Hints:
Blueprint: E1 5-11, E2 17-29, E3 32-38, E4 43-45, E5 49-51, E6 56-62, E7 67-73, E8 79-87, E9 91-93, E10 96-108, E11 114-117, H1 119-128, H2 133-151
Parallel strand pairs: 1-10
Antiparallel strand pairs: 1-2, 2-3, 3-6, 4-5, 6-7, 7-8, 8-10, 9-10, 10-11
Amino acid sequence: MGNPVINVNSRKYDGNxxxxxxxxxxxxxxxxxxxxxxxxxxxxxxxxxxIKKGTISHExxxxxxxxxxxxxxxxxxTFRNYYCNINMPPTFENxxxxxxxxxxxxxxxxxxxxxxxxxxxxxxxxxxxxxxNELRSAVEEAIVDLKTLIVxxxxxx
Length: 157
């Protein structure tokens, strides 16, 4: 018998679902939850290029952190990249993981280079939804924390 399948909901700040997908529940070692997903269709991403059907996604969510980390591998197991979302700490109840995506992302490529994505979208939504100073501070701290993990080679492997 396989591991349970759970639903993941990535929400906008107003609570509307941005994306939803299913993945396999692998482990819970509070505060870390680990899932495994497989892309069921090709996805064209403006910054990542074509993510092919069959791409494997190792997903790491901390219930007390303002980010999550996805480790993508091609279907043959070759490392593709890390994709790190800045988000409010998630909730996990009744087989559903929910989080508020705050638009900013970091990508770590196989050569170790780091690319920040969507700063303009974050700034626009910050004004649109009137993000508090505390929220904005938590976002910037999350970016610093992630960059520190990246520099020290401490992203989940």
